[in-house]
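User: Show me a protein chain along with its predicted structure.
Assistant: Here is one chain, sequence first, then structure tokens.
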Amino acid sequence: MRFSRRVEQLVHSPIGAAHALVGLRTNERPLLDLSQAAPSFPPADPVIERIAEVAHEADAGRYPPQPGLPQLREAFANDLNDGYAANIKPDDVLITAGCNQAFCCVASALTSPGDEAILVAPFYFNHDMWLKIEGVEVRYLEPGPDLQPDPKQAQALITDKTRLITLVSPGNPTGVTIPKETIHEFAELAHSNNIALIVDETYRSFRDEQSPAHELFSDSNWRDNIISLHSFSKDFAIPGYRCGAAVGGKAAITEALKVLDCLAISAPRIGQEAAIAGLLHAQQWRLEQASRIKDLELRFLKSMDGRPGGFKVISSGAYFGWVQHPRPDLTTQEVVRRLVLEHDVLTIPGTAFTNTDQAMIRMSFANLEPTQVDELPSRLNEFG
């Protein structure tokens, strides 16, 4: 048989590739796993209890309404309205099987093969992969030394083929939060060029500030160009139940629904019920987890302050440290391989998020216990 050339040219999942290295380990020392950016802790009790209840309900295995359970769409619209002082309506919310799927549905609805899309580098690899599967030409917006994107440089990348710009804030892999003023400039850029601005807010609960991440929803015309993406996986520790959301205007939701019908028909009911329980009964727990992970970040930064083994933190935030490794004479893939096989530290190579090898790795400190964070420097020193 023959396969799609677009798919064959894609990289394999960086997460899968990293975990494949674990099977090659011979050391008995416990692994420090800083790879996948998924909650490694259990959900709040009300969420767990609701999942158990749903499993025994007669309609648990049936298709929910395609745009999502009405109670979830309403609860999430209310949650966003509280967080952004906005007036988002339930009809503005499309529930998907995770935030990745939200991006896929929206990006496919916006583009055709041969169109162009702008991603900010370092980019989230699944965004890049999906656009390439769809035959979209990706143009990369390189940030400044502070890893912040410049709207003026973005304007220089826009052509008559450009259909969307995607911002991820806080960033994956950098953890960098884009200031609201910059996000607003990108929104103006999208409006003036009649393209979409997709804002992936997967890690919005893990920002340093409690104030709204932006004020895009205050513009009465936001539905014309803005699409906001969200993940319940991170907020309520339910990644395996696959529940996310896209928030946009009627036209965007209508077209994205067509794609969702082909990909999954609808998000799984049990994941939607878990998200409802989280929104209604686990908000304090959500804040406590965000605070705990912030403490882990501060502990991580302190542990890395002396540049153990020559490893230097370039940026951090949300779940991530974006770290420069000390061996430019080696490929980053080889550094990652040696870290896991010889020093029992599992990370993701920065090449998963960039087009060239920039001697960077992503460390997801949120996966660790405090004592494991304290252990990290000694293992990195072994490498050095």
